Amino acid sequence: VQKDATTASVISDAAAALGLDPGRLYVLAEVKECGGEEWVLEAGDLPAQRFLLWPRKAQETHPRSLGFYFLLQERNHDGTIHYVHLPPVSKEQEAQLAARGFLPPPQDDFADLCNLPALNEGSILNNLRTRFHKKKIYTYAGSILIAINPFKFLPIYNPKYVKMYENHQLGKLEPHIFAIADVAYYAMLRKRVNQCIVISGESGSGKTQSTNFLIHCLTALSQKGYASGVERTILGAGPVLEVLRGERRRWARHAEATPPGPG
Ligand SMILES: Nc1ncnc2c1ncn2[C@@H]1O[C@H](COP(=O)(O)OP(=O)(O)OP(=O)(O)O)[C@@H](O)[C@H]1O
């Protein structure tokens, strides 16, 4: 591409070289960051001059994985993007394309269910199972945290983890119960409004344990855990709540078993 070649001439040269139908509308877009926005060039823009503004490394090697490339796109005649439906590729072709940087590397588990390529019961359960087998018991569904009871101790609750998740945007790090505690704690400080974390699950799923982890993290964040014994006091209320819950359950069972009397 010559220094003074306009976008229009680059498009027509590229279309001719690639044997594209000259009757169709093409645009040239500049991508400056991996996954970044595509900037559609005007017909009179000079692509070579834009290229000179890229970082030196991008000018020399411009691996697609780093971003910084031009994209020739076919458009519909009204200017909207023309989507081409490619034939499905085999697993092998997919791996080859990923190795060459044309496709993102295949991912076998997703930290957020919202990112699943296909969303259905099977794919959700599969994803949770795959993660569970990798000792990743937490998964997000947007801002909701799903926890699967590992029924064994995992070394992911020490103070290092409290620090790691402190004041972090949800979703930036691997899903964790401390991330939820942290979001609630900082939202409370920022908005000066009480926060509420709803924990739901069937019996034995780990609600009490999750509550304990939340309290542990919250007291550590407020740095009052040791000084005032807050954590001990709150956790000490747990058995009382358990007794009350047990009573309530017994009462509900009794109510179910007793046929309603007259009136
Ligand atoms: N994240 C976890 N890591 C290790 N063990 C866990 C975890 N979550 C739960 N457990 C274990 O699973 C068992 C049941 O958990 P827990 O008592 O919290 O369930 P629950 O949902 O409160 O049950 P219930 O509704 O019957 O009171 C406990 O022995 C607990 O130690």
Automatic annotation (TrEMBL):
<dbReference type="InterPro" id="IPR036961">
    <property type="entry name" value="Kinesin_motor_dom_sf"/>
</dbReference>
<dbReference type="InterPro" id="IPR027417">
    <property type="entry name" value="P-loop_NTPase"/>
</dbReference>
<dbReference type="InterPro" id="IPR046987">
    <property type="entry name" value="Myo9"/>
</dbReference>
<comment type="similarity">
    <text>Belongs to the TRAFAC class myosin-kinesin ATPase superfamily. Myosin family.</text>
</comment>
<dbReference type="GO" id="GO:0016459">
    <property type="term" value="C:myosin complex"/>
</dbReference>
<keyword id="KW-0547">Nucleotide-binding</keyword>
<dbReference type="Pfam" id="PF00788">
    <property type="entry name" value="RA"/>
</dbReference>
<dbReference type="InterPro" id="IPR001609">
    <property type="entry name" value="Myosin_head_motor_dom-like"/>
</dbReference>
<keyword id="KW-0518">Myosin</keyword>
<dbReference type="GO" id="GO:0051015">
    <property type="term" value="F:actin filament binding"/>
</dbReference>
<dbReference type="GO" id="GO:0001726">
    <property type="term" value="C:ruffle"/>
</dbReference>
<dbReference type="GO" id="GO:0005737">
    <property type="term" value="C:cytoplasm"/>
</dbReference>
<keyword id="KW-0175">Coiled coil</keyword>
<dbReference type="InterPro" id="IPR000159">
    <property type="entry name" value="RA_dom"/>
</dbReference>
<dbReference type="GO" id="GO:0005524">
    <property type="term" value="F:ATP binding"/>
</dbReference>
<dbReference type="GO" id="GO:0000146">
    <property type="term" value="F:microfilament motor activity"/>
</dbReference>
<keyword id="KW-0067">ATP-binding</keyword>
<keyword id="KW-0009">Actin-binding</keyword>
<feature type="domain" description="Ras-associating">
    <location>
        <begin position="1"/>
        <end position="77"/>
    </location>
</feature>
<dbReference type="GO" id="GO:0030027">
    <property type="term" value="C:lamellipodium"/>
</dbReference>
<dbReference type="GO" id="GO:0072673">
    <property type="term" value="P:lamellipodium morphogenesis"/>
</dbReference>
<dbReference type="GO" id="GO:0035556">
    <property type="term" value="P:intracellular signal transduction"/>
</dbReference>
<feature type="binding site">
    <location>
        <begin position="201"/>
        <end position="208"/>
    </location>
    <ligand>
        <name>ATP</name>
    </ligand>
</feature>
<keyword id="KW-0505">Motor protein</keyword>
<dbReference type="GO" id="GO:0005884">
    <property type="term" value="C:actin filament"/>
</dbReference>
<dbReference type="GO" id="GO:0030048">
    <property type="term" value="P:actin filament-based movement"/>
</dbReference>
<dbReference type="GO" id="GO:0005096">
    <property type="term" value="F:GTPase activator activity"/>
</dbReference>
<dbReference type="Pfam" id="PF00063">
    <property type="entry name" value="Myosin_head"/>
</dbReference>
<feature type="domain" description="Myosin motor">
    <location>
        <begin position="108"/>
        <end position="263"/>
    </location>
</feature>
<keyword id="KW-0963">Cytoplasm</keyword>
<protein>
    <submittedName>
        <fullName>Unconventional myosin-IXb-like</fullName>
    </submittedName>
</protein>
<dbReference type="GO" id="GO:0016887">
    <property type="term" value="F:ATP hydrolysis activity"/>
</dbReference>
